[in-house]
Amino acid sequence: MSNKEVKDSNYYIDWLEKSIANEYLSYYEYSEFKNIKQIGNGSFGSVSRANWKNTDTILVLKSFNNSNPTLKEIVNELKLHRDVHFNANIIKFYGITKTETENYALVLEYADNATLKTYLNENFNELEWKDKFCLALQLTDAILCLHERDIIHRDLHPNNVLVHQKSIKLADFGLSKKIAEASGSRSNIFGVLPYIDPKTFNNDYRLNEKSDIYSIGVIMWQISSGRQPFENLEHDNVGNMNQMNVQIYMNFFLPLN
């Protein structure tokens, strides 16, 4: 780890510790959570389901490795949750804890219907149009809340949209940024390819709210049709991804005959 990375990591750890000490963040002892069961993991850390003390209340513990990129992500997510926690269609943030391995973890609301992708796969045939309309409206409301506070999500796809008791819960703000910060630098491709604004393929494109709006449009199409975008192509195949890039680019930029 370089001197700069060490300095940055220390900055984020100091920010977390000061925020806890000043009661800017609610801190919970890890021993207060029972029946902890891991339900997901990735390069950032892991996601676990847990009960709060000796109650039936279910929460999510989203832990992060104590490395510079993930510490930066957790601090960024905490700051953004503070600005939008009141919205009913955004996953609620309760506080922070420290796991047995000394990694910080967010304490978050649990969504009992899993991701939107899973929810559509399992329930699409039972959904009426009014149900689909409600899902689309709730997603739009959550994004509007972000945009009204000059925040762009930048990583919208059905695995980052949760469903709790048949209602949308927007999650994962690790890649989100204030619009002024994001648009001040050249954009990179974030998220899952079929949901990405095609203009992002242009390295000179400045990120803005329209990038999220494009992603919402694709998700709405999936809600209404029950189908995966570009379902005939495997997204994890490099050749197919290049083909998808070309297809999206041509459909978006070339005029219709």
From TrEMBL:
PROSITE patterns: PROTEIN_KINASE_ATP, PROTEIN_KINASE_DOM. Gene3D superfamilies: Transferase(Phosphotransferase) domain 1 (1.10.510.10). The keyword Nucleotide-binding applies. Residues 33-257 form the Protein kinase domain. One of its GO terms (molecular function) is protein serine/threonine kinase activity. Signal peptide: none annotated. InterPro entries: Kinase-like_dom_sf, Prot_kinase_dom, Protein_kinase_ATP_BS, Ser/Thr_Kinases-Pseudokinases. ATP binds at K62. The keyword Nucleotide-binding applies. Keywords: ATP-binding, Nucleotide-binding. Pfam families: Pkinase (PF00069). This is Kinase-like domain-containing protein. It comes from Rhizophagus irregularis (strain DAOM 181602 / DAOM 197198 / MUCL 43194).
